[in-house]
Write a structure and sequence with these properties.
Elements (H helix, E strand, L loop, with lengths): L15 E9 L2 E5 L2 E3 L2 E3 L3 E7 L2 H14 L5 H11 L1 H7 L9 E7 L5 H16 L17
Antiparallel strand pairs: 1-2, 1-5, 1-6, 3-4
Helix pairs in contact: 1-2
Length: about 140
C-alpha cells in the first residue's frame, strides 16, 4: 500500500508486522536499491516494525514524516532528509516523498507480532549484516525464547 493513498480496508485495531520500502522515482513500481554493509538491498526496505493497530501506525508514519514530530524512525527520516541534498534531488520535496513509500504488512495475532518482527529483522540482518536504515532499536527481548 502506498503511504500517499488511503488505507485499503479497515485497519484500525488490526495487529501485524510491517515493513516500509522506498520506491524508485524513475519507476515507482520498482524499489529503490539501498547499499548495505554486506550487499545491496534491492527491496529498498527502510524499516521493519510491529504494531497492535496498523491503521494508527500508518497514519502516525504519515504525520511524522510531514510534521517534524517525534524521536522515532520517522523523526530520523525527517532529520536525514533535511540534511541530505541527494535525497531531495532524488525524491523531491518532503511533502511529495509519501508517493515513494510503500508499506507491506502481515496481520498476526497480538501474541505473535513480537516474534514476527524478530524473524523479519533477523532475516534482514542475516542478509545485509545490519538493521534496515531506519530501525533504531532491536525488536523484542533479544534472542530469548
Amino acid at each position: 500500500m502506498n503511504l500517499a493513498d488511503p488505507p485499503h480496508g479497515p485497519l484500525a485495531r488490526v495487529p501485524g508486522v510491517y515493513q516500509v520500502q522506498i520506491m524508485n522515482p524513475d519507476d515507482p513500481s520498482k524499489p529503490f536499491p539501498i547499499p548495505r554493509f554486506m550487499g545491496t538491498d534491492l527491496e529498498g526496505i527502510l524499516t521493519i516494525g510491529e504494531t497492535v493497530n496498523l491503521g494508527h501506525r500508518i497514519n502516525n508514519i504519515r504525520y511524522r514524516i510531514l510534521n517534524r514530530k517525534g524521536h522515532d524512525e520517522w523523526g530520523l527520516f525527517y532529520h536525514v532528509y533535511g540534511l541530505c541534498p541527494r535525497m531531495k534531488e532524488t525524491f523531491g520535496p518532503l511533502d511529495e516523498v509519501l508517493q515513494y513509500l510503500v508499506i507491506s504488512y502481515v496481520e498476526m495475532e497480538p501474541s505473535l507480532i513480537r516474534s514476527g518482527e524478530i524473524r523479519w529483522t533477523d532475516r534482514y540482518m542475516g542478509r545485509f549484516g545490519e538493521w534496515p536504515p531506519l530501525c533504531s532499536q532491536m525488536p523484542g527481548d533479544p534472542r530469548t525464547k
